[in-house]
Specification:
Helix content: 25-40%
Order of helices and strands: HEHEHEE
Strand content: 25-35%
Largest sheet: 4 strands, mixed
Distance between the termini: 49 Å
Shape: elongated
Strand order of the largest sheet: 1-2-3-4
Number of helices: 3
Radius of gyration: 14 Å
Number of strands: 4
Length: 97
């Protein structure tokens, strides 16, 4: 049976359906998949591609976009977890400058 938690997990994967160590470039999807299979449930890396281009365009900052993915909860079903994604872009201008 698909619960709302499973739907949320599936939705996250669907949102980031494009192509994880600290200095390598990845898509958010690749980092999510790496976190799912990592023993500690974590993954991090530099995000590139369409996702990064969209955020660079929205923020006006050109610094690399870093992502940190962590597992909030592992479910009984294999390969099913609730993940948190944190996107970090240094030197991003704020509304006040």
């Amino acid at each position: 049976m698909i619960t709302p938690k499973h739907i949320i997990t599936i939705a996250v994967f669907s949102l980031f359906a494009t192509t994880a160590s600290a200095a390598e470039s990845y898509s958010v999807k690749a980092l999510l998949m790496q976190a799912l299979s990592a023993p500690d449930g974590k993954a991090r890396g530099i995000v590139e591609g369409k996702e990064a281009d969209a955020i660079h365009a929205a923020t006006g900052a050109s610094d690399p976009l870093r992502a940190e993915v962590s597992t909030l909860k592992r479910f009984k079903q294999e390969g099913c977890s609730r993940l948190a994604v944190k996107l970090i872009q240094p030197n991003t201008p704020t509304k006040s400058g």
